[in-house]
Please model this.
Amino acid sequence: MCRSLTFLLTFLLACLLSGCQSTPQANSRYLPAELCYLDTVAPTIRVDLMYAGHDNFVGRPLEGYRGRRAILRRDAAAALARAADILAQEGLGLLVHDAYRPAPAMEDFYRWSCTPDDKMKARYYPRITKRGIYEGRYIGRTSEHSWGIAVDISLISLSTGLELDMGGHVDLLDPSSATEYPGLTPLQRANRLKLRDTMAAVGMKNYSKEWWHYYVSPCGICHIYSFPVEDDLMQHPEGR
Model:
């Protein structure tokens, strides 16, 4: 296995404590009531789902990504909307690179990790092996993304539309991606802390190894969703 036993046991315990449940919905045309399209809550936030395209560490679209609209649990989407309002006062905005991630995409990652394909190594994991991606806990067999409570984001200038200098791109699986990596320039550090402080102000937590990864704390029952990311799912009339 490419993940430590300790981490797996920790995750399983967290699932039990939070009521995490698996909800296979791969063939559903409905969006669960507790989820929403981000653009219906925060239309000013830019979205570019990296796993729906080829510029990601796998080098192709991931299983389950059939659309370009970001999906999140409603509380996570509301938090992002508040963050966008705060940042807009300084001429800044958010760019979402990933949000809800179907459980089949997580399995797709793992299958890819067991192949010899290394075409994206130089750009995305230059100093580690595929096994190191899992051992370093950059990704795992499961993710808060599949609960709909996590997002990968960056800062942009509203006037230019360009991303700010964050000291590395999203999904650079490298020690330099730690939020408080000591080798950053003052500007890069300031940008990372601006993002972290803004997200903290709206109740979202940072994964310290990845400056771009934020999530809301699980509360109540969390579901591991498997339905695909599509652009025209209907809200379920009965809640699921």
Notes: The domain at 5-229 is CATH 3.30.1380.10 (Muramoyl-pentapeptide Carboxypeptidase; domain 2). The longest strand covers residues 150-157. The longest helix spans residues 186-201.
